[in-house]
Design goal:
Elements lengths: L14 H14 L7 E7 L2 E7 L5 H5 L4 H16 L3 E7 L1
Parallel strand pairs: 2-3
Antiparallel strand pairs: 1-2
Helix pairs in contact: 1-3
Length: 92
């Protein structure tokens, strides 16, 4: 399968963006085994909901939100490569 968006019915692929997000978050946290990412797809838009240990949330957000903003930028760029719009939310 290529990195090109694959549209099957109403489903869209966001594998590249998901993999980028998963890698970054797991590298930032103390407990990478507690990380899970839920993907919500809706008409070419993907929302990634990141769940992690409560002690690791601050590591992902960073001071003044700089880290999460950088993560969102990278994930959006990866999703755009597939022709998708993406967002990242931290669920606590």
């Amino acid at each position: 399968m290529s990195d090109v968006q694959e549209d099957v019915g109403n489903q869209v692929s966001g594998d590249t963006a998901h993999n980028v997000l998963d890698f970054i978050v797991r590298e930032l946290v103390e407990d990478p085994d507690s990380v899970s990412i839920e993907t919500i797809e809706d008409r070419g838009r993907i929302e990634f909901q990141v769940f992690t240990a409560p002690d690791d949330v601050g590591r992902i957000i960073g001071r003044r939100g700089h880290v999460i903003q950088s993560i969102r930028t990278l994930v959006r760029a990866a999703a755009a490569k597939e022709g998708l719009d993406a967002d990242v939310e931290i669920i606590d």
